[in-house]
Amino acid sequence: MNAATDTRSRIIAAAKPRFHSRSYANVGIQEICESAGVQKGSFYHFFPSKRDLVMAVIDEFADEWANGFVAEAFDPALPPMERIDYLVDAAYFWQKSIKQVHGRMLGCIFGNLTLEVSTQDDILRAKLLAIFSRAKSRFKDTLEEAVAAGTLAPLDSDLTAEAMLAYLEGVILLAKSQNDPELIYRLGPAIKTLRVETAA
Amino acid sequence: MNAATDTRSRIIAAAKPRFHSRSYANVGIQEICESAGVQKGSFYHFFPSKRDLVMAVIDEFADEWANGFVAEAFDPALPPMERIDYLVDAAYFWQKSIKQVHGRMLGCIFGNLTLEVSTQDDILRAKLLAIFSRAKSRFKDTLEEAVAAGTLAPLDSDLTAEAMLAYLEGVILLAKSQNDPELIYRLGPAIKTLRVETAA
DNA sequence: GATTTTCTTGACCGGACGGTCATCTACAGA
DNA sequence: TCTGTAGATGACCGTCCGGTCAAGAAAATC
Are A88 and A191 in contact (CB under 8 A)? Predict the structure, then answer.
């Protein structure tokens, strides 16, 4: 790892927990630079703007999830509907461990950023939309596999997948308002009761 | 209406759409004062801090809803489960009309603020929590009435109510990420499929 | 009419914001 | 050895931030 990529990744590493635990507007570039041991001019050598930084942070979170819990949850070896349980459990354990370390439930950074910036920055909104879109596809594929396997009565897999994603985000939102990840544990399993029937 | 309450309410009136359409951090007191035609010193005569202002704004939104759509939706004359449909419809039409006027879907201000500030301000978090708690009670009472009437198979009304509220918030979040209220229309009705069974 | 309280005015505070820039250093390739 | 480039430095830009304050105007109370 040369000096250049090291500086860049130190910036991202400093920014990640801050954007996650506070908000986009509330985290300043100066603070990130100080924490990363980087001068401001150097920051702007790697990131044209604050928005570009948060995009890189979004990518990092997305990769982390895709290669971690999501890869585990959507393991083809698992029965389809169990994968959904697995993912909800992963969200629960993750939020729980964050709270143990940090003292607070931080929620989903994609949801957090969506509600904060999506009326003000269409480029960020598009970025976040793409993340949700990929998540939805995972759910959809899983639902279709379950239907094909006969584990699940036929339904509108596209809309049901979207409903499940919405539900997961909503549960995390409510849990954050209570600062209590246990809500995810209690409400999570009901995700499988959601159904949108196929249009007649 | 004397001058005092008029100034106060003009401040709130100027703040409401701004906090709703942007974010807490992104709206400054100076801007609100200019829009309301009020001097800064006068602002701080009525509101000890920015936080107090946003609390008043939250109260106004809550009252507006409680006396408007919510009162209509939870009309005892309606069959219980239809009340839930009514509320989801109201959310849809509201967001749709906002988009027509404003060009954007603004979402639920309670959800927006929750994700933005609840890790940074426990007093605001408590305020928002109380709003959600009241909303949950409405759902819960309705579910219990439906069960009593035999329209709905017995379930855990407390957790199901919370699940429904979470789902509604999640759907609005996803719709906001797409800047498309139609998603509420498509996903909303599935709220009634949510069930948390009573613990054995 | 005198006094007290409520409200308004507008200048002012220190500090943080995102972002720029000229200058310097280090290193790579020719 | 020379040159071009990537990276680092730190001062600097104008602007906005939430909040304060002393003074004055207006209105209510007696």
Answer: yes
